[in-house]
Amino acid sequence: GLPAVAMLWQLLVGTGSGAGTTTVVVLCAIDVVALLYFLLAFHRSVSEDLGQVVRATEQMVAGDLRLAIRQGGPDELGRLMGSMGQLGRTVSAMVANVRSNAAFVAYSGRSLARASRDLSDRTEQQAANLEQTAASVEELSSTVQENAGTAGLANGQAGSVRDVADGGAVIMSQ
């Protein structure tokens, strides 16, 4: 560790006219290495975050709403990842709600069909009862008419008997 620092110091400070140029070259090389390191680190960070967002999007498109997105940092990509996770949870809740409502509609449809069949059966039974009642009323009407005719005949015969009785009473009184 220490000899490397001493060599670096000699290169940077050095002696002679070439020392300044060497110092600039070494500093530029260090800057280039540092810049490459930071660019690679930035690229890796952005690539991982965007890759996670792309995988989550592909997962949602495939119909799998169980997203496992780890929250990123406070930057735009981090907020994008958080929003993607929230989108997955929201869509999942909406799908669950639609499924629940569809199950309720199916249950209500079956109940309505059952009630409709029950009403149809009761209506048919009442129609049969009404038909039977109409036949009974017709039979009763026929019987009443027959009884009225018989009563008329009986009334006529009673009138004849009364006339005969009146005639007999007149003869007896003489």
What descriptors fit this protein?
mainly alpha; 3 helices; 0% strand; rod-shaped
Q: What is the averaged pLDDT score?
A: 84
Radius of gyration: 55 Å
Order of helices and strands: HHH
Number of helices in the DSSP assignment = 3
Largest sheet: none
- How many angstroms separate the termini? 175 Å
Stretches where pLDDT is under 50 for at least 5 consecutive residues are none
Helix residue percentage: over 70%
Looking at how many chains there are and whether they match, the oligomeric state comes to single chain
Number of strands: 0
Helix vs. strand class: mainly alpha
Please report which band the strand proportion falls in: under 5%, 5-15%, 15-25%, 25-35%, 35-45% or over 45%.
Answer: under 5%
Q: What shape does the CA trace take?
A: rod-shaped
